Amino acid sequence: MSHSTPDLAHTLSPANIAVRRSRSVTAGENALYNTQAACLVFCCGTVFKVSSLPGLVSEKMLSDTLWLYLFMLAADALCLAAALSFSFADGDRLTEGTLSRRVFAALSSLWLMLKGFVYFAYTVVFLMVDLFDSVPPYVVVIVLALPVLYLGIKGLRPIARCAELFAPLLFIVIVFNLAMLETDLDFGRNLPVAAMPAKDFFSRGLLYGMWLGDLLPLAFTRTERKGKCPFAVVGSGISFALVAVVAAVAVAMYGAALPFAYNMLIRLAGFNKLSLEIGRMEWAAIFVVIVMAVLSLSLHLWGAGEGCRRAVGSPIPARVLFGAGIIVIPLALDDLRAVTGFSVSSFGYAAFAVSLFFAGMLLLLTAKAKRLAREQTPPAPNTEDGTLSAPESTGEKEAADA
Amino acid sequence: MPKLSRAGFARLRDRFFRAKWLVVLVVTAVLLFFGRTTDIRSLTQSALVIGLGIDRTETGFAVSTLSVIVSGSAGGDNSESYAVYSAEGATVSEGLDKIAQKMGLLVSLSHCNVLVLSEDAFSAEHTLLFKPLVTAYSLPEQAVVTATQSPPSDVLAARTGTTVASAYFVQTSLLQNLGGDGLALVTVKDFLARSLSRSGCVNIPLIDIEEMPTQPGSEQGEAEGVAELFMNRNLVVSRDGCFVMDEDLAQALTMLTRSKVRGKLSVSLPGGGAAELRVINASPKLQAEGMSVKASLDVSVSFIEVQGAYTASALMRETEKEAAAQLERRILACHALSLSTGADILGLENEVYKKAGYRLPENCLTDISFSCSVTVTVKESG
User: Fold this and answer.
1) Nearest CB neighbour to B39, from listed A134, A183, A184
2) pLDDT of residue B280
């Protein structure tokens, strides 16, 4: 007598659920584990805040640099929370086809292209000032553009895996540089809090709005939980804390001379206890900055492409525009500092508003996605005690759907 | 030619991106291309500057460099020699360019660890003086800033009895605290940070040079022109100018404004005795309350030598009391000097500014009242 397992029971077996979840995460084009999301937050969300930004902020904010950083990090945490909550809610799939998501995708694609281009200009300027001052710009542009385009077009998975691979190493290098720092530090240089009237604080500080919302591309992902630990939240917390620490140390090291430190990570590595023993240690930070910048720019390119795909059906226009923007415009411009100057002009106010607008829009879309999810989920059968049980995870939900 | 279908295009795209060899090939090609187009300077084409001197002239700047010149030979053996070159220019950069022309080598400051500036050189705006050196010539921000009342080229060219180049002597002395008591090392970064602060005042080691009274002997007989370099005094650089500060005041000032201080302290004891003390640790604290600043300094010392007969308890008590009184006198003398010169050497404006913020008026040094207390503790060993 043959015995056959019922289809439903077979589908619902724990091993099968695990396999299905695993496949859905690794094989999908926009799926992430929360560990990968944490690594992306660290690699892509901090690099431009801890490299060139401290010097730029200090030019206008004086001893209020750290306080502006804390204010901006709070705003950035809101943007990140909005993107992550949308991602965790699988909002990208649930809101598919709605007008609001299409509008969001189109606008964010344009915004990511613009930000990616400005960040690319910053990276090229850094490479040409700090490393290859006698090299023609086209060499730097081509060498930098190739990995960015390759990773950005190949997709989220290689970017996330690279981030997963490099994040621990990069984190250790930064922490090592902070631990081995040997220089005159005066944390009192972060005072006074009132280095300028409140009106000036905001009118000057909001000029740096472009550095907000670096992780907007996560809105096009679907993040899966791995284990019980909230890796994405913990990773984001550590990343943001590290940014605040670097800002505080930067002011403590340089005080009013901070505007001369055009790349703070490199400067941190320069004042290393081991420098006298084994030579200058800047190379370690240069490696960190280049890897993180390439990953961040790739994520911007991927995000711009995905936004374009959801808006017009194909990512190619965004990829072509992004590629052309980062290759042609830097070579066409006489001085790339015009781009970096533009980023801290009045454009910064618009950038601040746009980032918060996207965060607000994502929060609304998340609410909508959750409502749609509730509508799509069939009510679970009554249990013995009369309560209704809803599926807790996507895997269970899928199993229930099946 | 048949048109590629959407699926066919996707297949081709996937195959393209799956090809890891392609990535290796592209990277190799780029690096080869990069290697052929990059102007990599060899050591024999560069003058590695280890010391830079800057003096102010009527028309601009007199720049001097102490360079290591590496000469290569076919057998692969390299030899090093040290040379001082000087040139004048309207800017420091022009001076460096002229030196490069004289040497026929590219000037690189990336190994320069010592800067020797004349008093007049500080009359130039500090930002404009240092920024081009850091950005255009890769001067490390860790380079030590020193001053001299002699021409900087003389200090760089000085032959000392113990090191092959004066720059090494200065660097080693400051790093190992072998200069004057409590003389602090000031890097380019620290110089700018202090110079651009609200107080706008920084004290740096002053190098004095004298010919050695007894020239050292060598295999060829007695050597000539060997000099001694002293770094006992400080040059105080403020917005209003510079002045020299003696070793005693410099030591007290360094203790109060820096935490990492070593050095020695000589104390006269009642009854004609004296004690030589080693400073183990100094913990300064400046606290502003409105327009008054209170300084407190806790110093730990240990005995090196005592002249005179004292009981152990009396020696400890008297030494602590006398050393504290001596340091307090010196700090108050620093404050008096600060008021008379208008240079905020104690950093009082910085402290008041931390609490008062942007409402603090400019140049308010004379409006700030100052008091200090010093505690000295004698410990068994350091």
Assistant:
1) A134
2) 84
Q: What is the pLDDT of residue B256?
A: 84
Interface residue ranges in chain A relative to chain B, Cβ cutoff 8 Å: 129, 132, 134-136, 139, 142-143, 146, 150, 153-154, 183-184, 188-189, 191-197, 253-257, 260, 262, 267, 270-271, 275-276, 280
Amino acid sitting at position A252 = A
Instruction: Place A9 in a pLDDT band, splitting at 50, 70 and 90.
Output: very low
Q: Which of B174, B353, B354 to mutate to test the interface with A (most CBs of A within 10 A)?
A: B354
Residues 6+ apart with CB under 8 A from A378: A400
Which range of residues forms the domain containing residue A90?
31-372
B240 CB within 8 Å of a chain A CB: no
As for the ipTM of the complex, it is 0.81
d(CA A20, CA A394): 10
Domains of chain B: 258-382 (3.30.300.210)
For residue A385, being part of any structural domain is answered with: no
Residues written for chain A: 402
User: What pLDDT score does A133 carry?
Assistant: 66
* pLDDT confidence bin for B2, thresholds 50/70/90: low
pLDDT at B325 over 70: yes
A146, B26: Cβ pair inside 8 Å? yes
In a domain, A166, yes or no: yes
pTM: 0.83
Residue B35, pLDDT > 80, answer: no
Spatial contact of A319 and A145, defined as CB atoms under 8 Å apart: no
**Residues whose CB is less than 8 angstroms from the CB of residue A338 and which lie 6 or more positions away in sequence, other chains included:** none
How far A257 CA lies from chain B's nearest CA (Å)? Answer: 5
Q: Is residue A121 part of a domain?
A: yes
Chain A interface includes B353 (CB < 8 A): yes
pLDDT at B361 over 50: yes
Interchain CB distance below 8 Å, A197 and B358: yes
Alpha-carbon gap: B309 to the closest alpha carbon of chain A (Å): 42
Measuring CA to CA, which residue among A318, A333, A290, A268 is closest to residue A119?
A290
End-to-end CA distance of chain A: 28
Q: How many domains does chain A have?
A: 1
pLDDT in tens, A21-73: 444 444 347 888 889 999 999 999 899 999 889 999 998 888 899 999 999 99
Spatial separation of the C-alpha atoms in residues A258 and B290, rounded to whole Å: 28
How distant is the alpha carbon of residue A390 from its chain centre? 32
End-to-end CA gap in chain B: 88
Chain B positions in Cβ-Cβ contact with residue A184 (cut-off 8 Å): 187, 189-190, 193, 258
Q: Which residues are within 8 A (CB) of A236 and not within 5 positions of it... i.e. 6 or more apart?
A: A38, A41, A45, A77, A80, A84
Count residue pairs from A and B with Cβ separation < 8 A. 87
Is A382 inside any structural domain?
no
Q: Which residue from B188, B174, B231 is spatially nearest to B208, judged by alpha carbons?
A: B231
| CATH number for the domain that contains residue A304 | 1.20.1740
- For B26, nearest residue in chain A (alpha carbons): A146
User: Which of chain B's residues have a Cβ under 8 Å away from the Cβ of A132?
Assistant: 38
